[in-house]
Design a protein that fits this description.
7-stranded antiparallel β-sheet; flat; two-stranded antiparallel ribbon; 5 helices; alpha+beta
């Protein structure tokens, strides 16, 4: 039996177990620093247009950078694990996404109700047909429905650039030197942190 692979297999097993609890991910931010992402930002007040029988919703096209929390923790920080997006400072462009006739009509009703996150799903479905211009006969519609949410941002991975080889190497080194050891230490500290977190949450709720 070859025993040389036992330590490596053990390390892989430990990392697989820890990945379900908490892990450091600074290497992801290094990688994202070398990547350009095309994304979209939908913010209230919304702008709705109609051309013939087709409705369009305006959104801002932006160049975005993804930022990951240093520690992804599904135990203590389970509400702070989502990545955030920031604009890289490029010029924003207004684009127009076609939406369904039903959605467009609901948005114009006084008793209507829409959620920005739900609208994002419809825009994602029609991403391939969005345009930087409206048809010539388009007119703006008055939105009277109640709108839930302030804004939402998303990216299109297929329009993202790959980081350079230097950034990839630096990210890999950071993962090996910083994130893997840090993940082991962080998970080892969880039993000691648990009582403090529990009492903090208890006192906060009180």
């Amino acid at each position: 039996m070859n025993y040389r692979f036992i330590p490596q297999a053990g390390l892989v097993a430990v990392m697989a177990f820890l990945s379900s609890c908490a892990y450091m991910q600074t290497h992801k931010n290094i990688e994202e620093a070398g990547r350009q992402n095309t994304g979209y930002h939908l913010v209230a007040p919304l702008k709705l247009y109609r051309a013939g029988g087709q409705y369009y919703l305006a959104a801002e096209q932006q160049q975005l950078r993804i930022h990951y929390p240093i520690v992804h923790d599904s135990i203590f920080l389970n509400e702070n694990n989502a990545p955030t997006y920031t604009s890289t400072g490029g010029k924003d462009t207004t684009v127009y996404f076609p939406i369904s006739r039903g959605t467009g009509e609901v948005m114009q009703r006084q008793d209507g109700y829409v959620e920005i996150e739900t609208l994002k799903g419809e825009l994602l479905d029609n991403a391939a047909t969005c345009s930087a211009t409206l048809p010539g006969a388009a007119t703006e519609c008055r939105i009277q429905a109640a709108v839930q949410g302030d804004s939402t941002t998303w990216i299109t991975p297929e329009a993202s650039t790959d980081p350079g080889i230097g950034t990839t190497i630096l990210s890999t080194l950071d993962q090996v030197v910083i994130d893997w050891p840090g993940t082991v230490l962080y998970n080892a500290a969880i039993p000691f942190m648990a009582p403090f977190v529990f009492f903090h949450q208890f006192l906060t709720e009180e």
